[in-house]
Amino acid sequence: MAEIATWGVIAALGVATFATRLSFLALLGEGELPRWLRRILHYVPPAILAAIIAPQLLAGAPGLGASFDGPRCAAALAGFAVAYFTRSTFASIAVGMAVLWGLTLL
Amino acid sequence: MTTPDRDSSIARNQAFLAGARACLPLSPGVLLFGMVCGAAAAGAGLTPGQSFALSWMVFAGSSQIVATQLFSVGAPAWVIVLTGWIVNLRFMMYSATLAQQFRGESARVRWLAGYLLTDQAFAVTLARVLDSRRDIPWFYLGIAATLWLLWQVASLGGIYLGARVPANWSMDFVIALTFIGVLAPLLRDRAMAAAAVSGGLTSVFLVLPLKLNLMAAACIGAAVGIGMETLWPKSRPGA
User: Fold this and answer.
1) Do residues B179 and B69 lie in contact, with contact meaning Cβ atoms separated by under 8 Å?
2) Count of A–B CB contacts within 8 Å?
3) Between A8 and A52, where is the model more confident?
4) Least CB-CB distance to B199: which of A26, A46, A87?
5) Is A92's CB within 8 Å of B47's CB?
6) pTM for the full model?
7) In sequence order, what are the residues at sequence separation of 6 or more whose Cβ sits closer than 8 angstroms to the Cβ of residue A29?
8) B130 falls in which pLDDT band (50, 70, 90)?
9) Which residues, 6+ apart, have CB-to-CB distance to B220 below 8 Å?
10) Do A93 and B222 touch (CB under 8 A)?
């Protein structure tokens, strides 16, 4: 992408994000989100987070013939267990990376 | 002798400092995530200025990573903006909740509060609202501004130091683990878990043109979550 286009994308994403954050704060809290919108917004974060994580667990490219990479899956499971029970992102990264390095060095 | 004005300005300062201190337990995770975001942007071929602009213009880790990944695979501009923005739609919910606390504040304060809005600042402030504290706006600005500062410092660190980390350390996997750390605590009911599993499966097995995979995963995951909640209300306790 041309440098000027890259700047345009960053600025557009920045303005759109700022507008989203400002929405109700600027309107002085007059109003509530409709229930259907709240439900959509509630389920988007887990869906998109999982969608970013999952392709990183593959041995190759995504697609119908995708195959998973053993050490990365084991490291992800270990990180998930730590994050689920401790709620600490930091501990989850430390344990997950230790498992990945341990398994790839073996 | 103190005037009411002076008293209220002391109370504001105290609330602001209490907010800044509340940031301390969060700081290791924030610093690490910020460095990862800075290093990822620089590693994807963005200039240092562009990488840093993501951190202060967008100022949202997940969205920055999404945009970075889409930049590196050459997605069209509108797909990057739209997908990165969908990740940030949740801020609208936070904005609606926070607005009730900011009714008496000036427009300038409310705009600043909006710019600084993040998951962590919102979550910690909400806990204080539920404790019925009265100093919410300045406490919020204290934690939100401190998080902003940590994020910018960490991003700059990542932008300039990221390239020095050897490739065989698999540091790209830190991104996946960071997101796992954010995702795991969200999965407290079956509807949320179903949204996550369907989003993950979509991105693994479905390949769409124009790098629309993440957008498709968000839509399918949200539809499955809402479907679960509607067909099987027990899958979301407390709803």
Assistant:
1) no
2) 290
3) A8
4) A46
5) no
6) 0.86
7) B96, B99, B100, B102, B103
8) confident
9) A47, B198, B199, B202
10) no
